[in-house]
Amino acid sequence: MTNLDVENSAVPDLSTMEEAASLSEIAYNHILQLIITGKLLPGSILQERQLAEMLSMSRTPVREALGRLESEALITRSHGRAPMVSDVSIENFAYILDMRKLLEVEAAGRATGYIDQDKADIALAAIDTLLATKQPTAIQHWNVDELVHSTIADAAGNPLIASTIRDLRRRTHLFNSARIPTRLMPGASEHTKLMTAVMGSDPELSRQLMARHIDNVRDAIIDFMLGARRS
User: Fold this and answer.
1) Using CA atoms, how far apart are residues 146 and 123, in angstroms rounded to an integer?
2) Domain end point (choices 57, 85, 113)
3) Residue 76 belongs to what domain range?
4) Rounded Cα–Cα distance for residues 191 and 213 (Å)
5) Does residue 99 share a domain with residue 182?
6) How many helices (H) does the chain have, and how many strands (E)?
7) What pTM was computed for the model?
8) Measuring CA to CA, which residue among 174, 171, 159, 164 is closest to residue 224?
9) Are residues 138 and 39 in the same domain?
10) pLDDT range class, residue 177, cuts 50, 70, 90
11) CATH number for the domain including 71?
12) How far apart (Å, rounded) are the C-alpha atoms in residues 139 and 137?
């Protein structure tokens, strides 16, 4: 094998990788929509082959999409069996957000006055950058959202609380700004006020702002799910 052959063999085909990622995203969004709208009910078995045929694609991107849905607890597997749809009722998401509120409100209070200044400044700068971006992507919005909430959770001083908050947030990750674009600007504004409060010395103010923020997220998700199921 020549040096040129070695170099070429080491370079991935970016166009192929992008196409695979795009197909995986298409599969993910299509299956997710079926779940959110209730067309795939809790307990429904998901077969890779059938889904691939329905979407006119190979099983690989479908498998990747199912793995992503499983990581978000939207589908479950039992003893190596085919995945099935989890309970994604409005009531279930209300329970998840209620738990988030309990933990994140307390975390905000505990983090107040103890948050690392440099990390807080990074989070605030990330919010400003997001607001200055003309058309931020859902991934950009999620990265900033995760940065803000994780920075506060970590500053609360309890790794178990921080870990649980991350897990609960992962379960509501699907309701990003791509699905609820009206939350982008209000959410960023709430994040700025929240980070500023946590950098201060009033734990009760931080708790109040976090509680209001989670309530707004909950209301937006419920409105979205009700609208999706009416359509």
Assistant:
1) 10
2) 85
3) 3-85
4) 8
5) yes
6) 10, 2
7) 0.73
8) 174
9) no
10) low
11) 1.10.10.10
12) 5
